[in-house]
Amino acid sequence: MLRFRSLYGIGRSINKASGRLRHPLLRSYGFKGKPKVSIIGCGQFAFSTIGFFIRKTKGLIFLNCYDIDADNAKSLAHYFRFEKVAPSVEALLSNPKLEILYIASNHATHTPYAIEAMKHGLKTIYLEKPISVTEEQFVSLIAHKRKYQATLFAGYNRPYAQAVRKIYTALDQNTIKQKDAAFSMNFFISGHQLSDDHWYRRPEEGTRVCGNVGHWIDLAIHILAWRNLPKQLQVQVAYSNLEEPDDNMNITMTSDQGDLISIMLSARSEPFEGINETVNFQYQNVIAKVSDFRELTIWKQDKLIKKKFWPKDVGHKRAILQPFETENRDWSEVECSTLLMLFITQMVRQKTTSATFELESALAEFNALVAIKSKSLLTTSNVKNNAEQLK
Ligand SMILES: NC(=O)c1ccc[n+]([C@@H]2O[C@H](COP(=O)([O-])OP(=O)(O)OC[C@H]3O[C@@H](n4cnc5c(N)ncnc54)[C@H](O)[C@@H]3O)[C@@H](O)[C@H]2O)c1
Description:
6-stranded parallel β-sheet, binds nicotinamide-adenine-dinucleotide, Rossmann fold, 15 strands, 40% helix, Dihydrodipicolinate Reductase, domain 2
């Protein structure tokens, strides 16, 4: 608790511990507002991050929650004073008071739950990462998004971290889009050590590329978009152990614009304080280093900028609040990063070491598939497919 307090402050540390203990004597307090937020998936992230930041900034505005683990749903509802636990997803989605849905269940169900929500007429949906684990899911998600004109938000939080925003503002805004300028980015991540039977490892959940590495693929795409996205990425994957290809690996990407990106996931022991990461960055005359989103150093020629973040700010608060804000990141970035993530997932599944990702043609192909899917949305087989995936 002492260590966590020094990282996150006392309130969040107590909340995190409460999420692990789930004791009936533990309850949160705060202003009670109009209940309008429901949550599907009542695990640790819903408890320690989604519930925490909504309660802290918007008050107790929780409507219904649902989880296949009834105890998890009951304890989340008790702690955050939800109106009630929904007996089914159908009941949760049919509640006329529902305005904002958060989906924080297992990875394979994010897309099918979001689609069900859109079919129930819901317009504001926050999907934890990854938003989809297969291309088929992703095509269907975006076809429904376009059909129902829903606003989706993704749980990729790092673009909202203060350190990342500060690096952006340190760049020269007049020349940031300079065509021949190239980014160098390096991400070193000490990730959680997952047991062999952890649910992230189930084949249908999309590997750790979908489960974890997607964060840095998305951050890289977000940063590249500050200039403009390259047309092509040459992707190289180095596996330290082919028996466990999605653990302890390095992904290197170079682009037709000269960008150089490296993402190393190391998970050889459990990081006591949670995922720990270092970001090194260089673009034009700016060099930056982010130490676990607690410290930032920027060198801009003769200027030196140092900043500490307490509590540690990996962007969770601002990411969770996306549905309440008007100025959010461009959704098209999430579509690009998801396409790239699914491409790399496929490489890792096949243990491929080198492949070329053509962004323009991947987007064109994807949009063509979305258009085909949109046309066929009203057929009963689609309804069945979605119901099957949820089962
Ligand atoms: N953005 C981030 O930094 C971040 C960090 C941690 C987790 N997450 C994401 O949050 C989500 C939840 O992760 P977690 O750490 O809370 O895991 P968890 O294992 O603590 O919780 C997952 C919950 O989902 C429930 N669940 C499983 N299948 C379900 C289904 N079919 N329908 C409804 N509920 C179901 C489980 O019973 C469990 O309560 C995942 O998508 C994960 O990737 C995001």
